[in-house]
Amino acid sequence: MIVYVKTQGARIVKEGRHLVVKKRDGIYNTLFTYKLKQLLLFGNIEITHSALCQLMQYNIDTVFLTRYGRYLGRLAPPEAKNVFLHKKQYLLLEDAVFGVRMARSIVAGKLTNMATLLLRIKRTRKQPFAGVLAGRIQNLFSKLNSADNIDSVRGYEGRGSSIFFEGFRYGFVENAGFTRRVRRPPTDPVNSVLSLLYTFLMNRVYAAVRIAGLDPYPGFLHTIDYGRYSLVLDLMEEFRSIIADTLTLSLFNLKILQKKDFHVEIPVDETSNQPTNSKTADVSSDPIGLINMRETDSANFDMPEQRMEDNDTASAQVTGKYPVKLSKDAFSQVIDAFEKKLTTRFFYPVADRQISYGDAIIYQADQYRKVVEGKVDVYQPVLLK
Fold it and tell me: For the segment 133-150, what is each residue's pLDDT rounded down to a tens digit?
């Protein structure tokens, strides 16, 4: 069971064998720790010492995020004890042939899924140019297959992502103000939802990596850096279009999310109690997406790194644009939709049976482990049908 606690000012306390979410004298929810797999806490949520001990005793992955879903850190279970597996992971970092092969497999899966989604947009939205862009992504495969170094593989991934987001906007029934992928801060409703869903996805992939007993840091597509979960970021790439991108389209096209569900957060000068920028941006009055007209590096990856020195406000002061945030009710709707999406079942070739997307994430981490251990020759990404 995955639980999201979003009520600001809530307090999690231990009562007997269970945890209770309280606010003032009221009880919001009872958490049965023997059922709990992951606990996500958004914003101002307090946990008592005894509750923390309970979470650690049951090895429950506890994730701390800002109120709007920005990753802060986690209370993780004890490290996996298989030192030999971890040693193999790090030794393979020096194996250039293995690294290129693994990175190519990951990028091939991501490119395939992006092209498939664009072709869906072409058919369902009758947008021929989306098909043209899908063809451009498909044309990268021959170059990807002949790439002999990871930098080239990363370049094709970056090019493919740039092409994909050029066509992603054609998937919306109504103009949602999206023109390109903007990460920090997300300055339009679509980017706000994408960033949130990518964060949720990252947490699920992280949990799967830990279940598989893998070290989350050594990856191949994403460069190794201090505090970066490179392996987690690698394994989530194939699921971006399958889960987050398709869900974003559904949320807007089915009008589950509308312009009224978003607001621009403008910081207030504490000395004057006035907005730091005299111009107030209104998402609902941005029909052509001018709010998010910002240059971005297409080679950048979407997930925030695990180093959190930068923040939305600092980025906004540089670009002159401020973060677009979801309302409380809309935030809950996105969470509910994400959890429902993970229960969607599909035919999983590796297991030769129907499984959910949530289970597929766990299976893929296990498949990656088998490749590292030499039990499987090639990593097979999940492909969108």
Answer: 999 999 999 999 999 999
